[in-house]
Protein: Fe2OG dioxygenase domain-containing protein
Organism: Daucus carota subsp. sativus
Amino acid sequence: MEKLVSSWSSNQHLPEDYVFPVEQRPGEETTIPVCKAIPIIDLEKASHGRKDIIQQIIDASQKFGFFQVINHGVSGVLVHETMSVVKEFFTMDDAEKASVYSDDHTKSCRLHTSSPNYDTEKSHFWRDYLRHPCHPVEDFIHLWPEKPATYRDIVGRYSVEVRNLSLRILDLISEGLGLEPGFFQGELSNDLLMSTNYYPPCPDPSLSLGLPKHSDPNLITLLLQEEIYGLQVYLDGQWLGVEPLSNAFVVNIGHQLQIVSNEKFRSVEHRAITNSREARTTIASFISPCNSCIVEPAKALVNEANPPLYRAFEYQEFLKSYVAKAGKKETALQAYKIEVKHH
Ligand code: OGA
Ligand code: NI
């Protein structure tokens, strides 16, 4: 428990093992303004119609690998209750959090600090995180925190709604890509892992990171954040700030969707910076293939002119190598790439 950043960090200097190497530090970039170009897509705008919404999602997934959705159908009350109960969890006394804390990174539900590579990484991430599977709820709810008393009920309902929204977005994507209806339903989107991140106020945001540059390994991610800036996207050699909107979901393309789309979409790298004023809480819902799912570029998207850029593999094989490579994009994908021969 003494590892939790939240349990020791107030009124402390930044410890050496939380200082990132110069080339990874945000430095002055902690103050870059939010980028208004990252699309905010209204899923209910009747005047636009389904075709237009699909086009906006496809364009954003190609260009940015990121977009936000508003009027997304997940109840505003539930979104608010979920953020509140998660914040309440992180601000409880250590003793009340002890039952879910673990140094064993193979445990499916656990509270810890930094990353699964805590014991071997050079620099720790300035965050505590609680991670657990969510689907189907009844298989996993007994592993979730018992306190706050409403956690299981609220997060249970939230995870069902977020999963439904994800499947809805995936249906729009499959239609936009010209894939058969329901293409992503089933094994490719079977698992839902929820990771709640708590970034305490940090004594030196220019030297540290809540999450260093990474792409998500899964299919697609829906992130809920408060109206506190912290998420940055690395696009064409430049960091862009994502506008914090408390009633929107930030949607980003994971490695599996880059692979299945045969690189029509990009799993764009991103990071979380810290700030010295206030704690920031985010809730990431990772929609993932099941472990035994065979992933490969969609057959309908490959032909002689567009050969497959990746070989087929089992998702659990990918995940293992992803964690070992600490999330770095090029090395995480390398082993699965097919060399394209130029004539
Ligand atoms: C993640 C992530 C960003 C944030 O959990 O993979 O990128 O702002 N989170 O918490
Ligand atoms: Ni991420």
